[in-house]
Amino acid sequence: MKKLLIIMFVGLLTQSMQGQTKEEILKDFTGPVFEFENEVIDYGEIAANSDGNRVFKFKNVGKSPLIISQVKGSCGCTVPTKPEKPIMPGETGEIKVKYATNRIGPFSKTVTITSNAYEDTKVLRIKGRVLEAGTADIEKKKSVVSDTN
To answer: CA-CA distance, 145 to 149, in Å (whole number)?
Structure first.
């Protein structure tokens, strides 16, 4: 009987928690809210030692200043840079990321943002494939040949 009561209580609790959607919660939320243009940056196939700089652009669609306290790459090869000033409601900002393109092969890395936003921890991703020097042109030619067949 106790088990049945516990199961019923958990079921009611779960049902009431699902009553509001994220949009409904955010409508009344008075804090900052991230809205990213893209949460994944795909470098595609890039040559070794090429430019590894990219930018995640976002807007504070919340109702108070957005303060980013920390950005951290998942390894030493991914170096993010955060805005130093608060991002006011309606303003845009950027998280800059530099990937070390001297590492040959596919990659998939994360950038973790800690802030005072609705989602206080946000994880963004970069991915791609670094080709050995001189192979970028070969890969493009292979792709053109396979596309025409």
So the answer is: 7
In this structure, the chain runs to a length of: 149
Instruction: Please report which residue ranges of the chain form alpha helices under DSSP H.
Output: 2-17, 22-28, 135-148
Q: What is the pTM of this model?
A: 0.74
Give me the amino acid identity at 141.
K
Reported as a single tens digit per residue, the pLDDT across 101-144 is 999 999 999 999 999 999 999 999 999 999 997 765 544 544 44
Count Cα neighbours of 74 within 13 Å in the Cβ-side half-sphere: 11
The closest alpha carbon to 81, from 39, 37, 111, 46, belongs to: 111
Measure the CA–CA gap between 139 and 25, rounded to whole angstroms.
48
Answer yes or no: is pLDDT of 23 > 80: no
Domains in the chain: ranges and CATH: 34-133 (2.60.40.10)
Contacts of 69 (CB under 8 A, 6+ apart): 114, 115, 116
C-alpha 98/C-alpha 96 separation (Å) is 7
CA-to-CA separations, 10 to 2, 3, 14, 17, 149, in angstroms, rounded: 12, 11, 6, 11, 59
